Amino acid sequence: MEPLPGERFDIDWGHFGALLYNGTPRKLYAFCLVECHSRKMYLEFTHSQSFETFVRCHIHAFQTLGGCARELWFDNLATAVAEHEGSLVRFNPRFLAFARECGFIPRACHVAAAWEKGKVERAIGYVRQNFWPLRSFADLSDVNSQARRWLQEVANRRKHRETGQVPDERFQPEALRPLPLLTPDYRDNAEALVHKDLRLTFDGNRYCVPPRYVGHKLTVKADSSSVTIYDQTHEIASYARCWERGQTFGAERFQKELYAQMAAAQRSAAQQRLVQLLGPVAESYLREIAHTDRSLARQVRELLELIRGYGPEPVTAAMQKAHAARAFGADYIANILRQQQTRRDVQPPVRLRLTELNELATDPLSLAEYDAFILQSRKESHDLASPETESTQPDDDEPATRSDGSRRGE
């Protein structure tokens, strides 16, 4: 039987042992699809045969070939066929929905009649004999990378024994049906509870999320390359897919946020409100007030009253000035605010009696030199000051007291 171009795809799985990830084995499967007219092949290796993986492989094959055939033939895979009795077939409802989205007709082979899709059966054997031997692989990505290169250079470039033509040259992509404009999302889907250590478990590994999601159930969606965590439709975090087990990811990523929440939990509600209104300067200022003998609760209450009276921005500016001057207390900030808010009247110049003096103009002089001179003399006098006390006896040149004079006269 030779189907027409774009009429039929044959699909099957093959089992290829396992890959080791630091001693952790993961079973390895090969999804194989053959365009029956040209014998052009699509090959993808996976670590799962789940429904989501099965459908994703179909989508990748359709995208690579540029469309979808009219009919897709399978054996009795549980992901595609729910029940098969004689010639009666009941397909998996989820797979029927996928077939409706992509516009193909699913067909199931009779039980124990693998020859009905013999083209893909021979393709799996060809992969075992030509691609698999004498190769080594680091991980799943490496397997698929080598498989794509083998398809491009060998499998789809050889002259096929039955058709006598090269599959790439015989293939007619224009005969395939177009794909839907929106690619359906068929990633692995699971719900996971976030524990107190910020971790949720998926596929044997632990993934961290922000602290605010502790105790919540989140949605995890994964494919062969990534693991993405959602809160309903909102994406929270995304990680590269790891096929090892017992690994933890993202602990350092949310460490700073956790520490910030722990510090906030140590503050009272009034302190928290003060920090929210004034910013980090308030937290530093309160820490300095705590080192004094002032009542911290009273200081916080008075600062909140200043905010209600003057507003957050003026209080923030006054707090910065007080902090720079090492003046810690709500009364200092209130004094700065009163000085800034008090209106200062401009005093008129002094008028002298002599009009000539009022009209006298002088050159402006700087008193900085005089200030420096005075400060220097004060410093020198302080350094030279003697610790001895001054004598209370009068000098010889001083005149005698009245009592001495009267005695001399006598």
CATH architecture type of the largest domain = 2-Layer Sandwich
Q: Specify the CATH class of the largest domain.
A: Alpha Beta
Helix content: 25-40%
Parts with pLDDT < 50 across at least 5 consecutive residues: 388-410
Instruction: Enter the CATH topology name of the largest domain.
Output: Nucleotidyltransferase, domain 5
Indicate the overall shape.
Answer: elongated
Query: What's the rounded overall pLDDT mean?
Result: 85
Q: Largest sheet, if any? A: 5 strands, mixed
How many alpha or pi helices?
Answer: 14
Oligomer: single chain
Q: How would you name the CATH homologous superfamily of the largest domain?
A: Ribonuclease H-like superfamily/Ribonuclease H
What percentage of amino acids are in beta strands?
Answer: 15-25%
What's the alpha carbon Rg, rounded to whole Å?
A: 45 Å
Written overview of the protein:
By secondary structure, the protein is of the alpha+beta class. It folds into three domains: 8-175, Ribonuclease H-like superfamily/Ribonuclease H (Nucleotidyltransferase, domain 5), CATH 3.30.420; 188-257, no CATH class; 267-341, no CATH class. It is built from 14 helices and 14 strands. The strands form four sheets. The chain has a five-stranded mixed sheet with strand order 3-2-1-4-7, with helices on both faces. β11 (217-222) and β12 form a beta hairpin. α10 crosses α11 (330-341). The longest helix has 17 residues, at 368-384. It is elongated, with a radius of gyration of 45 Å.
